[in-house]
Structure formats: structure tokens, C-alpha cells
């Protein structure tokens, strides 16, 4: 079986040596067998992948069309039996006895709540949502809210609820991509609103890390949709590219999540670096543009071969060119993609090996962050064509 995290581990270990160590605490993972999208993960599989990443994790049920009491019990049991590797959130449908189910699960050992407006087809205007946030305020626990693609922006509702219930800790998932354009500016007024990093695009991550105070950001992989080592390495590279300090990065990668799930007051680690990043070198800008195009095609079920070929040719800068080491690493990661390419899992458009393209994109977009000594061939036309 393809183990992408193991293949990328040297990159992550090198970054940890320079900027860590990090006590990883993943704020966003799933278990379940019945999600209509076809994804599955058992508790043992999650514990295994987190153990190999030296990470702890928050776990909650995947989408369960038949209801959540049973899956919530399974998540709580998985956490209680994980020797501290996992902590559990309960997943709630705001139309089905939400306050009662929240209290039942929190009394049984859950330490937070998950809401998924897209899967359960609700908005944050639902009366049940307010009931849930009131319970979170009463118990001082976090609520993780799906805030990615496929739903209307919900940031305004979130900050309104955060104002009304200041002891609830509201986490917008997936880099809050639907609201980040304005949300960053108001977050200093809402110390109980947070954003997780469970997303793939380094441009979104760099904007997040540049503009949002690091105390408001928590690292997340979205396992099994994402991979913990890949997510830790790529998200940390984006943070360092944006100018986040090592102390603040340790808070992002696990320290703040530890405080949120234990009911402690959030940690303050200073302001955001600000939008001061230097312009990307034109040679790397070409690589980034073609790789983003390739990923877009792959996510849409199309063929990324042409933009990948253009990205490889854009890397053929020669050994003495600016950022030759970056281009050589990109070519190595694209070689890994081609070596391990296989049809995607059933019902999923994106092949597992496509994560190597995401890794290559992140390397190209974060040239200020040193790479490990890789002893790679020079990025020449011959290497690009190989």
C-alpha cells in the first residue's frame, strides 16, 4: 500500500530539526464506515497513522445518514481506548435533539462538538445551532464547524454566536476559505473564534498565516481525506514562509488545540506577521501556476498531464539558476507522483498519488523555507524530460 507520509518523512523531520520539536495535535480527523462519499476509516487505522506521525488527534464521526448517537458512542470509545492518542468530539444534527445529545456525549467523555452544515443541510440560523452553542458556552468546549467548499459563507453567523456565547470556542474548518477575505480583519475582536488548517492550497495558507494572529489558528489534517505528515510539513512550510515564529508555530501545531480540548484559556503568542512576503520569483511563479492548474484538473476528474508537463519544463532552470534546489525538489516529488500513480479510490476523482503534486506545489510556493540536503540531480531539461 502506498505510504505517502513515510516517503515525505525526511522533509518533515528536517523541518522539525530546524524549527521544532512540535507536539502535534490534529484538530480534525474522522472515523466511520457509512459516509455516502465512500471514505472510510477505523479507529485502529486512525491510531496507526497518528502514531506514525507522532501526533495526537481530535476524532469525530464521518457523515452518518442514519444518525449520530451510535457513531458518537463509537468515537468516545475509540478515544477512551487509545491510551491518550485520541480525544473525541460528538457530531450533532441541529434538528435532532441537539442539546440533549451534546450533554449526553460530553458527560460520557467527549471534549467538543462537530457541526457539518453541508452534510446535514442546515445553516447557522437554525434554532438548534444556538442550543448547541449555548451548551458549548456552558461547558467551555470547542465546536468545529465545516467551513469549506460547497456551502454559503457562514463567518458572520459564527462571529455573532461567538459574541453572544464568549465561553464557546468556535473553530471554522478548512482555512475558513469562504470567509477569510474579510474575517481576518475582525478576528482580533473575537478571541473565541479559531480557524483550522485542513486545506491543500498554500496560497490560502500563506494568506491565513500572514493575516490572522497565530493564536487563532490550529493545525489539522482532515484524516483520512488528508495525511498527517503531509499536512504538518506543508502547513508548517506555509507558516514559516509567511513569517510565523517558531514559538507561534508550536502553538499552531498543537499547543492551542491542547488548551481548547482541556478547557484552558487560549494562549496568546503575538500578532500576525502581516502581508509582507516578498514577491515570488517569476521562475517559480510559472511552476506554481502550472501545478495549481494540474490540481484543479485532477480534482475535477480531468487529466492533469499537460499542466504537469509544463510544470516540469518550467523547473528546467539549470543548476546555477535562482531556486535550483526548489526546482529539483519539485521534480523529485513529481517523479514520485508518476511512479505511484494509480486510479483514484471508488467515488473519488483525486488519485492518492496526487498528494505528491500538492507537496510539489507547496515547495514551489515556499522558497524561503530551507529544504533538507537531498542530493538530487540538477533541474535541467534532461531531468525534466526524464
From TrEMBL:
Signal peptide (residue range): none
Domain of life: Bacteria
Matches recorded under Pfam families: Amidohydro_2
Keywords: Lyase
InterPro entries assigned to the protein according to its UniProt record, in alphabetical order: ACMSD, Amidohydro-rel, Metal_Hydrolase
Positions of the Amidohydrolase-related domain: 51-260
MF term (GO), any: carboxy-lyase activity
Coiled-coil features, chain-numbered ranges: none
Protein name: Amidohydrolase family protein
Amino acid at each position: 500500500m502506498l505510504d505517502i507520509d513515510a516517503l515525505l518523512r525526511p522533509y518533515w523531520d528536517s523541518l522539525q530539526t530546524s524549527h521544532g520539536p512540535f507536539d502535534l495535535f490534529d484538530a480534525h480527523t474522522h472515523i466511520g464506515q457509512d459516509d455516502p462519499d465512500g471514505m472510510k476509516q477505523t479507529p485502529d487505522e486512525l491510531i496507526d497513522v497518528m502514531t506514525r506521525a507522532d501526533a495526537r488527534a481530535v476524532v469525530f464521526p464521518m457523515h452518518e445518514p442514519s444518525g449520530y448517537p451510535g457513531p458518537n458512542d463509537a468515537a468516545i470509545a475509540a478515544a477512551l481506548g487509545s491510551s491518550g492518542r485520541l480525544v473525541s468530539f460528538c457530531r450533532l444534527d441541529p434538528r435532532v435533539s441537539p442539546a440533549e445529545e451534546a450533554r449526553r456525549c460530553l458527560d460520557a467523555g467527549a471534549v467538543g462538538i462537530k457541526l457539518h452544515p453541508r452534510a446535514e443541510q442546515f445553516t447557522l440560523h437554525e434554532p438548534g445551532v444556538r442550543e448547541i452553542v449555548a451548551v458549548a458556552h456552558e461547558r467551555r468546549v470547542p465546536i468545529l464547524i465545516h467551513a469549506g467548499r460547497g456551502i454559503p459563507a457562514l463567518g458572520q453567523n459564527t462571529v455573532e454566536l461567538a459574541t453572544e456565547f464568549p465561553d464557546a470556542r468556535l473553530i471554522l474548518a478548512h482555512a475558513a476559505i469562504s470567509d477569510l477575505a474579510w474575517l481576518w480583519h475582525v478576528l482580533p475582536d473575537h478571541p473565541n473564534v479559531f480557524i483550522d488548517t485542513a486545506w491543500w492550497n498554500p496560497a490560502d495558507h500563506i494568506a491565513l498565516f500572514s493575516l490572522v494572529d497565530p493564536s487563532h489558528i490550529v493545525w489539522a489534517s482532515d484524516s483520512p481525506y488528508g495525511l498527517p505528515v503531509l499536512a504538518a510539513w506543508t502547513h508548517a512550510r506555509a507558516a514559516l514562509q509567511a513569517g510565523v515564529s517558531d514559538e507561534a508555530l508550536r502553538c499552531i501545531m498543537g499547543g492551542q488545540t491542547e488548551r481548547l480540548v482541556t478547557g484552558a484559556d487560549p494562549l496568546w503568542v503575538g500578532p500576525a506577521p502581516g502581508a509582507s512576503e516578498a514577491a515570488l520569483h517569476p521562475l517559480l511563479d510559472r511552476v506554481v501556476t502550472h501545478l495549481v492548474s494540474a490540481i484543479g484538473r485532477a480534482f475535477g476528474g480531468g487529466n492533469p498531464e499537460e499542466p504537469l508537463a509544463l510544470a516540469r519544463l518550467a523547473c528546467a532552470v539549470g543548476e546555477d539558476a535562482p531556486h535550483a534546489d526548489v526546482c529539483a525538489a519539485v521534480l523529485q516529488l513529481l517523479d514520485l507522483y508518476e511512479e505511484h500513480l494509480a486510479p483514484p479510490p471508488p467515488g473519488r476523482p483525486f488519485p492518492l498519488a496526487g498528494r505528491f503534486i500538492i507537496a510539489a506545489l507547496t515547495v514551489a510556493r515556499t522558497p524561503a523555507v530551507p529544504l533538507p540536503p537531498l542530493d538530487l540531480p540538477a533541474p535541467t531539461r534532461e531531468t525534466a524530460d526524464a
